[in-house]
Amino acid sequence: MRKRLLLPMTVLALIALLSSCTTDGGAPSSNPQGGSTVAQDNLPQVAGDKGAEPVITAPTGTPPSDLQVKDLIVGDGAEAVATSTLTVHYVLMAWSTGQVVESSWVSQPATFGLNQVIQGWQQGIPGMKVGGRRLLVIPPSLGYGDVASGPLAANETLIFVVDLIAVS
Question: Would you kindly state where each structural domain of the chain is located, as residue ranges?
Answer without folding.
Answer: 29-167
